[in-house]
Design goal:
flat; alpha+beta; 7 helices; three-stranded antiparallel β-sheet
């Protein structure tokens, strides 16, 4: 038998005709040709199908739903409210159909095993058997008539039960609508109940938290009460001791009374002293607070001084670097000055002058140049050479026309001397910028700009 679900139906219910009208089978033939598939058409009247409903082929005069020959699971419609959903069909394959000529019928069985509809009986006959003459006796005809009457009566009963079921269905639908309204109210009540439960839970959590806090406070109060009880016992003991002492003092003489008064005065003084100590303690607390404020201020000032110290250290490092740089420049200038002195001596010796015998006074023009160029202390030494030495060279050239070889030698030496003088440069002692010897005025203006 062909099945769409692994488990075969196992429910067994005794035949009950009151539910047969809920599913009606349509277009059921009296004969079906063996070896071919058959399609079973059925209609739902007042019945909602479920997932495990099935349609079985039963031999006529069956008693329980377990006596099916084959079955097929029904297909659930998508929308039960449409007309097309009420018209359904299922196909039985030829392989699973009966091979005998007994009477069979379709039966719709729900998942609870209740039969909801049954078709008219039918047989499986070949096509050529339709022309066979059937000879029946009078007893068989009477039996068939009796069977037909019974079936008509049963059909009428089924119609009456169908009307009754339709009425019951309308009542059930009305009751179902009421139940749906009650279901909606129930859902609303469930939501309200959930909200109340959530509120109750939150309130209970708050109460539990408050209870724990109160329990902790109670434990603290119990501990404090125990301490206070111990303190009260101690004070009561002290009070009893003092009462006994007072009784002894009362029973004593006047000296004891004076001593008691003196003790009271000392107690008052101690109270006053305690009050003064409390005031002094407050002053000390105020002083400590002020000291903390001063400490915070001192800390801020210390941080500022540290920042200033860092800045000064940085500037000192920069100044040291500048000082070292200037020292190197000074050493460089001194070296260049020595070179210039050596060159000057060489030139003076070449001119036949003694450098040591020259006076250190600078001419007026040289003083003027020195004032214009404060960077040159003794003026420009080459100025004097140019003014004094070169005329001598011209004179020597003028008076040596007779000796051409000597004149040529002197011209060559003068030319070499001029090249050496032109090769000399004036270096700025501040920024190491070099100027040619012919740009003396520009060099002095440059140095003067540094001085400004």
């Amino acid at each position: 038998m062909e099945e769409t679900i692994d488990d075969a139906p196992t429910s067994a219910v005794v035949l009950d005709h009151c539910h047969f009208a809920q599913v009606i089978f349509n277009s059921v033939e009296k004969f079906y040709v063996p070896g071919g598939d058959i399609t079973c058409h059925y209609t739902f009247t007042h019945f909602v199908p479920r997932r495990k409903d099935w349609i079985g082929i039963f031999r006529v005069e069956w008693n329980t739903t377990r006596e099916y020959y084959t079955f097929m699971w029904v297909t659930l419609p998508v929308d039960m409210n449409s007309e097309s959903a009420k018209q359904q069909e299922v196909q039985f394959k030829a392989y699973y159909l009966p091979k005998d000529d007994e009477y069979y019928q379709f039966c719709y069985v729900d998942q609870d095993g209740v039969v909801r509809g049954a078709s008219i009986p039918f047989q499986f006959h070949p096509e050529n058997e339709d022309h066979i003459l059937v000879v029946s006796t009078q007893g068989e005809v009477e039996e068939l008539d009796q069977r037909n009457k019974e079936l008509c009566k049963e059909n009428q009963e089924l119609k009456d039960s169908c009307v009754s079921l339709q009425k019951q269905n309308s009542d059930l639908q009305t009751e179902l609508q009421k139940m749906q309204g009650l279901q909606e109210e129930l859902e609303t009540l469930k939501n309200i109940n959930k909200e109340l439960e959530r509120n109750v839970k939150e309130q209970r959590d708050c109460w539990e938290t408050e209870f724990l806090l109160l329990k902790e406070k109670k434990q603290m109060m119990s501990s404090e009460n125990e301490k206070m009880g111990i303190r009260i016992d101690q004070l009561q003991t002290q009070l009893l001791t003092q009462e006994k002492a007072m009784e002894k003092l009362i029973l004593g003489d006047q000296d004891k009374t004076e001593q008691l008064e003196r003790l009271k005065k000392e107690n008052d003084q101690l109270l006053l002293s305690l009050t003064d100590q409390k005031k002094h303690q407050k002053k000390l607390e105020q002083t400590v607070k002020e000291m903390k404020q001063k400490e915070a201020s001192a800390t801020r000032k210390q941080q500022e001084l540290m920042d200033q110290n860092f800045d000064l250290s940085k500037r000192l490092s920069e100044n040291e670097f500048i000082c070292k740089t200037l020292q190197k420049e000074k050493e460089k200038i001194e070296g260049e000055n020595d070179l210039l002195k050596k060159e000057n001596r060489r030139l003076l010796s070449y001119m036949g002058l003694d450098f040591d015998s020259l006076p250190y006074q600078v001419p007026a023009s040289a003083h003027g140049d020195a004032r214009q160029n404060p960077g040159l202390v003794y003026g420009n030494p080459y100025c004097r050479i140019q003014e004094s030495s070169f005329p001598n060279l011209a004179t020597v050239t003028k008076y040596s026309t007779g000796n051409m070889g000597l004149a040529e030698d002197m011209n060559k030496e003068d030319h070499s001397l001029e090249q050496r003088v032109q090769a000399l440069c004036l270096d700025c002692p501040i920024c190491d910028k070099s100027f040619p010897i012919g740009q003396k005025q520009i060099f002095e203006d440059h140095v003067l700009c540094h001085a400004i």
